[in-house]
Write a structure and sequence with these properties.
- It is a single chain.
- With about 775 residues, the chain is α+β, with helices and mostly antiparallel strands.
- Strand 9 and strand 10 form a beta hairpin.
- The N and C termini lie far apart (about 65 Å).
- Helix 7 runs antiparallel to helix 20, helix 19 packs across helix 20 and helix 27 crosses helix 28.
- The strands form six sheets. Strands 2-10-9-6 form a four-stranded mixed sheet.
């Protein structure tokens, strides 16, 4: 039961005394404040004039209340964060909802739990809530505020007034904004940010003192607890988040490089399509200049690895380098997109994302889904059709590969979180248990979205992990998801939309697919455009590529909007999207930084190097050496890119980042280089055996009677897809000088080149 204790009476000052504005004791100030507040409560206005609106920085109610004042402060002080009392089981017997998403729970925990032992209205300074926070009593979280500070006094005032809650009919917050919303600073400069809450009655309240601030990249800019933004020494761009209750606002901060670049220099940059124009505009804002254009050999290798996931052959490289046509790079891209390897490479990527687990879905079902994916990319199926067929799939898991997505993840909450992340770039997983810490999504949004899959029926099959038999996916006449917190049934609800009460004749998944692929959907085209850009360019315009949210803004929003709209207007043609990106001048840039872009990691002033995917790298090793691997459940001489299940054993693929099929929700692979990967290339018995085979390329080249310089050239073309320099020819020739030891020297040369970053990185 809520306790409301009366505020102790404060006697008025001596009326015979003379009160000076500069000489007012504490008792007089308290008495004047009560008179002022009393006048406001009785008349509904401030004492100084009925027609004058109250100052914007004051709350409408005269008292400090829990929801409006105390709960935001708990977030700012970190009391309800994950490492503290916001963790699932709380801390030392005291639990709060994570980042204040459950007001009733938090109020009960502070005011009523433990027979109200945490607050003491008759002696507020003795309240356990203040004693621990101010360090007067032992506290595992340390001192969170100073005794007597404004924050301390705010909580003390709330306790002293009986711990009131905000009235149910009080104006509610519509949104929170940050002022300024964008800011350009020079290195070391600072500016004060203000968080403003806007209410349903039109009032704007400055909540900077209670808001929590956070910078996405502290190397670019930092922000203090009080909202003081300070630019770092590095140029770049970042977002600074301001949180107040469940509302989030973002300030975009830009720190350009010092020095003025003439406009003519940007005007003279090559522009192959709109991609270049939008990237140059962003670089101009940052005072950066792009890197040089990469040479033909590196472009040739890059295009092969990015478009079809394989190295060019020696003959293909020689032919491209000998071609003198001005349009040869564009012609190359068109040729690559028509090759059969294209379908295998991009299907392999989507197998990662959909990730059918053979231990849950069964071997035959996984093979069927893999075949469905490869056929979709070989025929260049429009992306909206691709997604629609997956989301609405029905039938046998042995006949319709798209249905395996529901066999692999039979629970509506599992499939709901996967679909939202894969096809909308919205990570709802956090909202399953609490309000999303960095977004607007609540538990209602999570369970409302999952409810679209509540009527997915399963007939036949066995429960995991024994799942070898056929299963039929169909639509049930009824079904609901149960809300994780309230236990109530939840109707389907689109993100940012209304709850839908569907009849038995309406198929929820059809309605969801229609909404997802609609031209008005703000996420659908963007996340695919961003995903493809990240695959081709080494980093997404939004990074991670499937995490689109206000607090993780795009590094170039106009560019992402253009790619999404262009993708949509061309019928969701994935090959068109790839071609648009690869034919831009931005795709041709060198990875070598310059003085005007050395600090750039997100704005595409240069190309970003990235390690090859595991399957691409293994196939590359075999192509270079002329060897093959034997994979289980695959025909002889199959390529790693053709594998249809992760159950095919391969220590190499596991070492270089083959995904774990048990991981949920799905995510992109990491391209990080690890110590085990480097040691594997250096010391792997399997790789050494391949290099030493009698029918491998090292032995064949060593046995030929070709001049040593030609042999070195052949090796470099096989490994690096380029001609060697004069110094490289001289050094390599020393290894091959002795005819009696030429094979050993050739094996050493191959081993040395395969262990260099130039080989296993896409440069």
């Amino acid at each position: 039961m809520e306790r409301r204790l009366a505020r102790p009476a404060i006697p008025p000052p001596n009326p015979s005394s003379t009160i000076s504005p500069l000489m007012v004791d504490a008792r007089t100030r308290q008495w004047l404040l009560l008179v002022l507040v009393g006048t406001w409560v009785l008349t509904g206005t401030w004492a100084h004039g009925a027609d004058e609106q109250a100052p914007a920085s004051f709350p409408e109610a005269p008292t400090v209340t829990f929801e409006a004042d105390v709960q935001p402060l708990l977030t700012r002080l970190g009391c309800n964060s994950g490492p503290c009392h916001g963790k699932s089981r709380g801390q030392n017997g005291f639990a709060l909802s994570l980042l204040a998403f459950d007001q009733d729970f938090d109020y009960a925990a502070i005011v009523q739990e433990g027979r109200g032992r945490r607050i003491f209205p008759s002696a507020p300074d003795q309240s356990l809530l203040l004693q621990k926070a101010s360090g007067k009593a032992p506290h595992g979280g340390g001192k969170r505020l100073e005794a007597g500070s404004p924050h301390y006094q705010l909580i003390r005032s709330w306790i002293e007034s009986g711990a009131p809650r905000t009235p149910a009919d009080a104006p509610t917050i519509v949104r929170v904004v940050v002022e300024p919303a964008t800011q350009q600073l020079a290195a070391g400069e600072s500016v004060q940010l203000r968080a403003i809450a806007e209410y349903t009655d039109g009032r704007r309240r400055d909540v900077t003192d209670s808001a929590a601030f956070q910078s996405n990249d502290r190397t670019v800019a930092t922000v203090s607890d009080d909202g003081l933004l300070k630019a770092g020494a590095l140029s770049g761009e970042t977002a600074v988040m301001a949180r107040y209750l469940s509302h989030i606002a973002v300030c975009t901060v830009t720190i350009p490089l010092p020095g003025k670049i003439p406009d003519e220099q940007y005007a003279q940059l090559p522009r192959h399509n709109q991609v270049d124009e939008l990237v140059w505009q962003k670089l101009k804002t940052l005072g950066m200049l792009p890197a040089e254009r990469v040479d033909d050999a590196k472009f040739h290798r890059r295009a092969y690895l990015r478009a079809i996931g394989r190295l060019p052959s020696v003959d293909e490289t020689r032919a491209f380098l000998a071609d003198t046509g001005a349009d040869k790079r564009v012609r190359l891209i068109d040729q690559l997109l028509d090759r059969p390897e294209y379908g295998d490479f991009w299907a392999n990527k989507w197998t990662d994302l959909l990730r059918p687990n053979p231990y849950r879905a069964g071997i035959k079902a996984v093979w069927n889904m893999d075949a469905w994916l490869r056929e979709a990319f070989r025929t260049n199926k429009p992306y909206d059709e691709f997604v629609r067929e997956l989301v609405t799939a029905q039938g046998s898991t042995w006949k319709n590969g798209a249905t395996v997505m529901f066999r692999d993840r039979p629970s509506p909450v599992e499939i709901g979180s996967s679909v939202s992340q894969l096809f909308l770039g919205v990570r709802l997983e956090c909202a399953k248990c609490h309000h999303h810490p960095f977004e607007i999504w609540s538990q209602d949004d999570f369970y409302g979205f999952a409810s679209f899959f509540a009527r997915v029926g399963h007939q036949g099959g066995l429960s995991p992990p024994i799942s070898g038999t056929e299963e039929v996916i169909y639509t049930l006449p009824k079904g609901q998801v149960t809300h994780g917190r309230t236990g109530a049934g939840v109707d389907p609800k689109t993100l940012n939309g209304e709850t839908l009460a569907l009849s038995a004749d309406e198929e929820p998944r059809e309605i969801l697919a229609e909404w997802m692929t609609s031209d008005k959907n703000p996420w659908f085209a963007k996340v695919m455009a961003n995903r493809v850009w990240g695959e081709l360019m080494g980093v997404g315009i939004v990074d991670p590529v499937d995490d689109l949210r206000a607090t993780n803004p795009a590094s170039n929003d106009p560019l992402l909007n253009f790619l999404a709209e262009d993708f949509r207007s061309h019928g969701y043609n994935v090959k068109h999207l790839i071609r648009t990106i690869m034919t831009s001048h931005v795709f041709e840039l060198s990875t070598v930084p310059t003085e005007r872009n050395a600090s750039d990691l997100r704005n595409f002033s240069r190309y970003y190097r990235q390690r090859m995917r595991a399957e691409v790298l293994l196939d590359g090793v075999n192509d270079v050496l002329g060897t093959t691997d034997d994979f289980g459940a695959m025909p002889p001489e199959s390529r790693a890119m053709q594998l249809w299940t992760h159950r095919s054993s391969s220590l190499f693929l596991d070492t270089f980042g083959r995904p774990d099929p048990n991981q949920d929700p799905p995510c992109e692979r990491t391209s990080d280089v690890t110590t085990p990967q480097i040691l594997h290339l250096m010391n792997s018995p399997t790789l050494n055996e391949k290099i030493s085979k009698d029918d491998a390329q090292p032995a064949k080249l060593a046995a030929s009677d070709r001049p040593v310089a030609e042999l070195v050239e052949e090796v470099f073309l096989r490994v690096y897809s380029r001609m060697p320099t004069n110094s490289e020819v001289a050094t390599a020739s020393e290894l091959l000088a002795d005819p009696k030891n030429r094979r050993a020297g050739m094996e050493d040369l191959f081993w040395a080149l395969l262990n260099t970053p130039e080989f296993y990185f896409v440069d």
